[in-house]
Write a structure and sequence with these properties.
The structure holds two protein chains of two kinds.
Chain A lengths: L1 H8 L8 H24 L7 H10 L1 H15 L7 H18 L4 H25 L4 H20 L4 E2 L3 H9 L1 E2 L2 E2 H19 L1 H11 L1 H6 L4 H27 L1 E2 L8 H11 L10 H20 L5 H21 L9
Antiparallel strand pairs in A: 1-4, 2-3
Chain B lengths: L8 E2 L15 E10 L2 E11 L4 E5 L6 H8 L10 E4 L2 E3 L7 H5 L1 E4 L11 H5 L1 H4 L9 H14 L15 H15 L1 H7 L4 E5 L7 H16 L3 E5 L3 H7 L2 E6 L2 E7 L5 H9 L19 E10 L2 E9 L3 E6 L8 H5 L7 E6 L5 E2 L5 H6 L2 E4 L3 H5 L6 H5 L8 E2 L2 E2 L1 H14 L16 H13 L5 E5 L7 H16 L3 E5 L3 H7 L2 E6 L2 E7 L5 H10 L18
Parallel strand pairs in B: 1-11, 4-9, 4-10, 7-8, 8-9, 14-21, 14-22, 17-20, 20-21
Antiparallel strand pairs in B: 2-3, 2-5, 5-6, 10-11, 12-13, 12-15, 15-16, 18-19, 22-23
The chains are: A mainly alpha, B alpha/beta.
């Protein structure tokens, strides 16, 4: 992963600054140290490929969610509703496919469409009504959560079409279930868009300087709308993966992904391409957090530690980026 | 009265006899201030009498703002100066906040009101937020606010939010607050206070200025004094009793306004006799084909104005603050909504400004370099190369990939041509000095070879060397046929690069200076002289030509 990352993102600087290089790979180093630490503590149970294969697959929805978040973050808007959108999407699949017998492929299309609609609703209030994105998406989170509970009668729906389950966790490549590779594919596409298309630069300028972007002929509102719709769609895709991983639709647990995904987005902005929200950084950060939580759980540490770990990581990530590059404007205005 | 400058024109005797018994509210003697080697103030003395409205006049850079900052305790004056307030010696330098204890308060141009709070909260803000108080008695506060507003006949609802007020009411409220803020000091000493108004009027409509003057007079009627700083000579003539004029850090003169003429005041500010030329057009030696015509462009601070820019012409726009000239580049680019107007390139259909967006303007080969470099022109936290090629990034998208390498190479070449130092396109824009950052942003637009380049204060905060680079680049491009419109308050800069300068007053073009007539002093003079002959008229319809 780290190889792919540096190949994709490093514009070869003539005089490579070692401090900069260290900053880029520091999180990967800390991740390896973490693995080594747990490995010493639990040589057999932690340090085996099967354990990592499960970890990679089960956190794939979280990875996709982190990718979803960084699109509007780059354009300068928060989207807190991604966690609820993930739940909505997986429950749309559950309700349509299990209860109404809708073919799974159509159910998936409709689930993604639901995510796009959430993005459009957010965009309407954020861009046209000019309500701060934090407030709008906090509101839509609660709104969607309520709709999901009504839709599912607050019950878990099991028995989702096996073809989805097979496509997500049925097959393995290098021992790792497919789910992981969907997240990687999304990161490949995103890093292409971010780094190798004019759209990526526009997104960045819209996030860092709206007026600058506008006066340079960028359709700022359209870019922001696109970013919010993309995050809705990606979050819905994460929901599809989640339904496949669980082979059921759970109206409650999806929101638990929100905090780790945000932590990963910000932590990811301190690595690979420090100072920018970047897809490979987000992926590294998701699995760094996942490794920490899995290791701690396996050590038998009580459940509350997970929350402390995630919350601590989020605050630490933002603190690090503030300390190392305090002179620079942050992405979020 | 210690006169320290031989230039002084002592028009004023000590003839404000009415107040002769009381000591002056403020007496400054020999106030000097140097920054590094440069003298900003050169031993200035003046006094403000009780119940007097005293004008403080001078061009940009004459030392007015330095003087204000010394009074506010922001700058320490050079040793040797003395200050008396109501006859008592005050130790210099003042500490920040001393002015309030003495009984002096300031209203700056931005007024310092919090838009999202109410009239009551803004009016009583210094009391409401003072550390010493415990619980706020709102009914008492409301009554105090009502009393204060009633004293000055200001019909404002204490619970109204500031952002719902008109510009005039905001200014009036800020002045009432300034006067109320020194109430405690005035009651303690029983002596008059001093309110200093720093350019309060440029953005107010005429009738608003009348109201403001009414308020100023009633403060003076309370026995306190007002220092009124303005560029608008007519206003100064109307409202002040006496005035002090600064020029290049020296005291240029004092006058009793009722006895001075408009021209005498301008002469004292500008420093030479007004050459009232009967606006003789110098015969045009080179005629330039017109390139673009702006027709009836108007906006809230700008009356319908029509301008023709010749091909390869550098046209300057200037005027005093608030005169409306600074809006034209933005209106012509579709960056701010215009109330009316259209833009037409020679030989093509006019485009209503309402339909113009920055995107469309760029496609028409227009370019705009905004005055706010960090907020509107470039993004400091992103690399130079991305800032340079922002409007034409599509050009580098070939075969499905953004050619980052080619962008970098072109940025390097462009940086070298514009002498950007250090010329490393991958560095962030913030790594460059202000002047070099401006070179990058000007290179961005000039590289596109626009037909018309619109500039707003292109050399603000830019060092002298960089200025010369930018001027040379502009001249070279103009010689190649690019037209330039440059809005600037800097007369020296306009004189150096412009073929023609339009001087604005009260939202309309009031004077046109061409060719040999253009000089730094001439422009400054026209700015001041403009005010008494600014009936709305559209000019320059005939002016696609230049000498």
């Amino acid at each position: 992963m780290s190889d792919a990352a540096s190949a994709n993102n490093t514009p070869a600087t003539p005089a490579t600054n070692y401090a900069r290089l260290f900053e880029r790979v520091a999180l990967i180093g800390v991740w390896l140290l973490l693995i080594a630490g747990f490995g010493i503590a639990m040589p057999t149970s932690f340090l085996n490929w099967g354990n990592f294969a499960i970890l990679f697959a089960s956190y794939a929805p979280a990875a996709l969610l982190a990718l979803a978040i960084i699109v509007p973050l780059t354009a300068g808007d928060y989207d807190l509703s991604v966690g609820a959108t993930l739940t909505l999407s997986s429950c749309v699949i559950g309700v349509l496919n299990v209860w109404h017998g809708v073919p799974i492929s159509l159910a998936i299309v409709l689930a993604i469409a639901a995510g796009v609609v959430v993005g459009l609703v957010n965009a309407f209030f954020i861009i046209y009504v000019r309500v701060p994105s934090l407030v709008v998406t906090l509101g839509t989170t609660s709104l969607i959560t309520g709709i999901v509970q009504w839709m599912t009668n607050s019950s878990t729906i099991s028995g989702i079409d096996n073809s989805l389950v097979m496509a997500v966790v049925g097959g393995r490549l290098f021992g790792v279930p497919y789910a992981f590779y969907y997240a990687i594919a999304a990161a490949v596409v995103m890093s292409y868009v971010f780094d190798f298309t004019p759209l990526g630069r526009r997104l960045l300028f819209v996030g860092r300087g709206r007026e600058v972007a506008r006066l340079n002929g960028i359709a700022v509102d359209r870019v922001r709308l696109g970013a919010l719709v993309a995050s809705g769609g990606l979050a819905a895709a994460a929901g599809v993966l989640y339904a496949g991983v669980l082979s059921s639709a759970d109206p409650y647990s999806g929101l638990n992904f929100l905090l780790p995904a945000f932590a990963a987005a910000f932590l990811g902005a301190t690595t690979i391409l420090p100072g920018r929200f970047n897809p490979w950084g987000a992926i590294v950060a998701v699995y760094f957090l996942a490794t920490g939580i899995t290791g701690l759980t396996m050590l038998g540490i009580p459940l509350w530690v997970t929350n402390v770990f995630n919350g601590g990581a989020l605050i630490l990530a933002v603190t690090i980026s503030q300390l190392t590059r305090g002179r620079e404007a942050s992405d979020i205005g | 009265m210690a006169l320290t400058n031989p230039d002084i024109v002592p028009l004023a005797g000590d003839d404000t006899a009415a107040h002769a018994s009381a000591p002056p509210v403020l007496r400054l003697s020999d106030i000097a201030k140097s920054f590094g080697g440069a003298r900003a103030l050169n031993g200035v003395s003046f006094e403000v009498l009780p119940g007097e409205v005293h004008g403080l006049l001078g061009k940009n850079g004459s030392g007015k703002s330095t003087l204000v900052k010394i009074l506010a305790g922001y700058h320490a004056p050079d040793p040797g100066g003395r200050m008396e307030f109501n006859g008592e010696e005050v130790a210099l330098p003042l500490r920040p906040g001393d002015f309030r204890r003495l009984g002096m308060s300031f209203v700056h141009q931005n007024l310092g009101l919090v838009p999202s709070l109410t009239v009551l909260e803004n009016l009583r803000i210094s009391d409401l937020t003072s550390v010493a108080r415990g619980v706020i008695n709102w009914s008492r506060e409301r009554q105090l606010a009502r009393d204060a507003l009633a004293r000055f006949d200001l019909a404002l609802d204490p619970d109204q939010r500031i952002d719902r007020l008109s510009a005039v009411d905001k200014a009036l409220l800020a002045i009432v607050r300034a006067f109320e803020d020194i109430r405690a000091a005035r009651q303690r000493t029983g002596a008059p206070g001093l309110v200093l108004l720093d350019e309060p009027t440029p953005f107010l409509p005429r009738e608003g200025v009348e109201k403001l003057f009414g308020l100023v007079r009633s403060i003076a009627a309370h026995g306190s004094s007002v220092i009124f700083i303005s560029h608008d000579i007519d206003e100064v003539m109307t409202i002040t009793d006496r005035a002090t004029v600064l020029r290049d850090g020296n005291l240029a003169g004092r006058l009793v306004t009722s006895r001075a003429s408009h021209d005498e005041v301008v002469e004292m500010i500008v420093g030479r006799k007004l050459a009232r030329l009967a606006q003789v057009r110098t015969p045009t030696t080179t005629s330039r084909p017109p390139l673009v015509r702006l027709e009836n462009v108007s906006a809230p601070q700008l009356k319908p104005t029509s301008i023709t820019v010749g091909k390869g012409e550098i046209l300057g726009l200037t005027g005093l603050i608030g005169s409306g000239y600074e809006q034209l580049p933005y209106l012509a680019f579709g960056a701010r909504p215009a109330s009316s107007g259209s833009l037409a390139f020679a030989g093509s259909e006019p485009i209503p400004l309402a339909n113009l967006s920055p995107r469309r303007a760029i496609d028409l080969d227009l370019a705009l370099l905004p005055g706010d470099r960090q907020g509107a022109s470039g993004v400091d936290s992103l690399p130079i190369v991305d800032n340079m090629f922002l409007p034409d990034i599509e050009r580098f998208f070939v075969g499905g990939f953004l050619r980052n390498g080619r962008m970098k190479r072109e940025a390097k070449a462009l940086g070298a041509a514009f002498e950007v130092r250090p010329n490393d396109p991958l560095k962030k824009l913030s790594a460059l000095s202000g002047g070099n950052a401006q070179k990058v942003l000007i290179a961005r637009w000039m590289n596109r070879k626009p037909r018309l380049l619109l500039l707003d204060e292109p050399t603000q905060g830019v060092d002298v060397g960089t200025r010369q680079h930018i001027f040379a680049a502009l001249r070279a491009a103009a010689a190649d046929g690019m037209s330039v419109v440059c809005a600037s308050s800097d007369a020296e800069q306009l004189a150096e690069i412009c073929d023609r300068v339009l001087v604005f007053a009260r939202g309309a073009v009031c004077e046109e200076i061409e060719g040999d007539q253009i000089s730094k002093e001439g422009i400054a003079e026209a700015c001041y002289a403009s005010l008494d002959k600014s009936p709305p008229r559209t000019t320059t319809a005939e002016a696609g030509t230049v000498s």
